[in-house]
Design goal:
Structural class: mainly alpha
Distance between the termini: 25 Å
Oligomer: single chain
Number of strands: 0
Radius of gyration: 17 Å
Helix content: over 70%
Number of domains: 1
Shape: globular
Strand content: under 5%
């Protein structure tokens, strides 16, 4: 018998908010590694490359590192590689894309793009966390689907 959570859904479950926050934080860690690493590389190397190109590469690399990190985490929970990889892509991709776009838009709006400073990084992380968190809560609460 399939459980229908349609009528039971609400936004007030502290347990689900905590669990979805943990999942979102893991996703943020993975996305940030690739994203910040790419921006920092271009910032330090001073290779002439368009800001939009750097930010696009940062988003792609953030997605790659997040998928990699989530796959490793799931494999440590006794998933085989194929199932871990498919789970990491299938359950978190919308969250990762929204996170990456929000972080890079924040950087672009505040610095002109592709510039990491001591004050913009925390703001990028906050926006990157808050943006997908309600979606992760909804998905976890409604379908009991999480990536971790």
């Amino acid at each position: 018998m399939e459980l229908d959570n349609t009528n039971n859904f609400h936004w007030s479950c502290s347990h689900t908010w905590k669990r979805s926050a943990k999942n979102t934080a893991w996703c943020l860690l993975g996305c940030s590694i690739g994203d910040f690493g790419t921006i920092l590389f271009f910032q330090l190397s001073k290779i002439p490359f368009p800001v939009l190109g750097i930010m696009t590469l940062a988003i792609i690399n953030g997605l790659i590192t997040s998928i990699f990190l989530e796959t490793v985490i799931l494999m440590r929970q006794n998933f085989d590689f194929r199932k871990a990889f498919n789970t990491a892509i299938g359950m978190s991709f919308i969250s990762m894309i929204s996170m990456e776009v929000a972080m890079n838009l924040t950087d672009y709006i505040l610095t002109g793009g592709a510039i990491l400073t001591w004050w913009v990084v925390p703001l990028m992380l906050i926006v990157g966390f808050v943006t997908p968190w309600p979606y992760n809560y909804w998905r976890l609460k409604k379908f009991n689907i999480a990536c971790h």
